[in-house]
Design goal:
Beta-lactam_cat, five-stranded antiparallel sheet, hydrolase, 9 strands, single chain, 296 residues, alpha+beta, signal, Beta-lactamase
Length: 296
């Protein structure tokens, strides 16, 4: 795979659209009543016919949606800083706090895999076949055991720190106080967008090809049996999609994430839902609708 068809991805830290809701307990019934908060300042700039407007409408009022889109653009000749900014912002959207950290769940496996490959290449050593198999399993079927073995064997926090430095990820940090809880690594909407747009330039071409090739072969179900056909891998997915999925329950919240490269765009969809209000099927439907709008 060569630089996604020979085109360079603009480095864009983009678009965050937020919907916040509150759950109130009904005094007369055991069912939670959801009162949606519709912040006019966030919704107004984007009519429902735009990708952002459609994503907000499709996602619905329950939960928090954070979505990022960075266009893949043809190489441009060098110009001024203003020229670069104009090219980078074309076709992108930004709403809300792009630096708000959220737990990555299994998305951190992509950072971990790139860091391990880069470290071995810098050292001039070949990774053992069993570790290459673990990387493939961590990215295709989101295998937690494979990721845990890699995290321990290669010092996950140190690998993550190296990735953060090389890709200039501003909001990504290893979990504390338990550095072994890799799923609790924090990241922001801007960081996976930056990572994916810069991957062809910062990683060795063979490593970038290995990573994106694995993401393009994501299995229908995760190693734990969770159905991975949601978000960018949901209904109507593009044949050219390379995506990493993430799911987790932590501190009363469901996290359902989908990031990747879809045709000529980098798309990041991060979603959070209160466990006592939204079940997995409803969360999947909301993420599917948002991803479909952003990927169309």
């Amino acid at each position: 795979m060569s630089r996604w068809g020979g085109r360079t991805v603009a480095v864009t830290a983009v678009l965050v659209a937020g919907l916040l809701v509150e759950a109130e307990a009904a005094q007369a019934a055991p069912v939670a009543v959801v009162r949606s908060v519709q912040p006019t300042a966030l919704v107004a700039p984007f009519p429902a016919v735009s990708p952002i407007g459609a994503a907000l409408v499709g996602f619905g009022p329950v939960g928090t949606l954070v979505a990022a889109v960075a266009p893949v653009q043809s190489p441009e000749p060098p110009g001024t800083t203003a020229d670069a900014v104009a090219r980078g912002s074309a076709g992108s959207w930004a709403v809300g706090d792009v630096d708000r950290p959220v737990p990555t769940a299994s998305l951190v496996k992509l950072y971990l895999a790139e860091g391990i490959l880069a470290t071995a290449r810098t050292a001039g050593t070949a990774l053992p076949a069993e570790d290459l198999a673990r990387i493939d399993a961590a990215l295709t079927s989101s295998d937690d055991l494979a990721a845990s073995e890699l995290w321990v064997a290669y010092d996950g926090p140190a690998v993550l720190a190296d990735v953060v430095a090389r890709y200039d990820l501003q909001g990504t940090s290893a979990p504390t106080p338990d550095p072994g809880a890799w799923g609790q690594t924090l990241t922001t909407a801007a960081d996976p967008a930056r990572f994916l747009t810069e991957l062809p330039d910062r990683a060795h071409p063979d490593d970038a090809e290995l990573l994106l090739g694995a993401l393009s072969r994501a299995t229908p179900a995760g190693a734990d049996g969770f159905d991975q056909s949601f978000g960018l891998l949901g209904p109507g997915r593009s044949a050219g999609t390379a995506a990493k999925q993430g799911w987790m329950v932590l501190d009363g919240q469901r996290y359902l994430h989908s990031i990747g490269v879809v045709d000529d765009r980098v798309v990041v969809v991060l979603a959070t839902f209160p466990v006592d209000v939204v079940d997995w099927p409803a969360a999947r439907a909301a993420v599917d609708a948002a991803a479909a709008a952003l990927s169309r």
